Amino acid sequence: MITIKEFTQIVETHGTEPTHWPAELRGECSAFVANSAAARSLIHQQQKVENLLDQIIAPDFPTLESRVVNQLLPKHTGSVFDQILNWLLPQNGLGKNIWRPAMVACLPLMFGIVIGNFYSFGVDLGNDGFAYWDDELIMLSLNDYTENLF
Amino acid sequence: MTEEELMMAVCRGDQSAYQAVVKLHLKSISHYAFRILGNQKDTEDITQEAFLKLWTNAARWNPEKSKLTTWLHRITHNLCVDYIRKHSRVQTQDSFDENIESSEFDDADADENNRKVKLLNEAIKQLPQNQRSALALCHYQGFSNKEAAAIMNISVKALESAIARAKRSLRQLVTEESDQRQKL
Description:
heterodimer; A: mainly alpha; B: mainly alpha; Rna Polymerase Sigma Factor, Chain: A; Arc Repressor Mutant, subunit A; 8 helices; elongated
């Protein structure tokens, strides 16, 4: 059986309309209202408050729509990829004046590195480097440098 | 055009889609801000900022997670809370007083009714910010308790506690006032 305290909590939380009460308690609440004068009095008082609340109307703001619509909207920056691309290759500002010539100046260097890496120009990079350098060190250690000292 | 299509257009930078969204939601957003802030100047500033945020963060709205109105109310709520924190007070004006509906009453009853509404309005202004927000969202903006809790970023239990406290104190005020009038 529901108590007046529990019913008060329901009315304060969900309002006076039985349709707004929790579905699982609606039947019990309705029966409680039918049998309890205190519950009916509570509903009556709460309805009074809700009627008074309904009479408090917020004003309209006639100039607000044009203000909001005509406000200066920033340009959309796009996706993260676009932002990174824009950071790397800026469309405007100081970056455009300095960064772009620097990037262009770097192009021959980059081109050289790529070409150098692609055509090894007679340097055989296919050898096992470690074995090769080990052999070289052993050979160097076997050299007789004594004659150079005199 | 559905709200989803409108927002996709806003993401692409379509200003006419932005205007359509503004037309759809301006009234409820400005009313909510007014019920929290209580004066015209701040309401207009916050509403403008809320729609600016909608424009810049349009891509962040997830239609599967929340309705556009819920998302917009959440932006507005956060802006209002930040504003109140920064200014540590709410500057209210008497704009509500000019908007009291009293047509259904006779002169004497209308006076009595207007006096009660003004009293209630003053009491609402004195409520803590979370109770005022809960009341505005659930009673005036028509959100369910779950939606209002999501807007305020609190649990449904906390929201229900706030709204119950607000309604209890308003009911007690009206009841006490009626009792005093009857004694006189």
